Amino acid sequence: MATGILGKKIGMTSVFRDGNSIPVTVVEAGPCTVVQVKNTDGADNYDALQLGFLPKNEKRLNKPEAGHFAGAGVKPFKVLREFRGMTGHKAGQEVNVNDLFSEGEIIDVRGRSKGRGFAGVMKRHGFHGGKASHGVHEIYRGTGSIGACATPSRVWKGKKMPGRFGNATVSVKNLQIIEIIADRNLVLVKGAVPGAKNSIVELCKRKG
Prior knowledge:
This protein is mainly beta.
């Protein structure tokens, strides 16, 4: 049973259904090609399919990549992702969005969030900041105390502090498919999904 497919985030728009404006994210989902099959009977000891998405120039392949694609008998791809639990396919077969999903279905979407660079605690963690009165001086957006010198004499592990914000794998669950445009491999998903335009996302069957 197939559990997911790769896609590219095109952008956001809105569609009208029953007089209501619904915000949707347009995703170009597939077609994907099965590059590698793993199963419990083999050395991998688990069921999975490795899917390839977006063709890649053969001149830009290194030797391990060239051998991997040649062994599968498929053309090279820019993006490879493994989906566990997928069975019933062979290397070289094509997986389309129509084969997996239907309109109205609830799915999970996984992607890479936008990178925000180095950010302070107000932007990164939602701190409210310091007071802007009563003698407060130049600590309006500061972190505040991170631990006294006597007790605990250190900074607690996991303390929320400034640092790199974004550019992390994010999963948004229970999103509804509003429409599937099969001839253009487009999926209209209700709401927002992680990532910038043209970023790679994974559309997955809802678990449970």
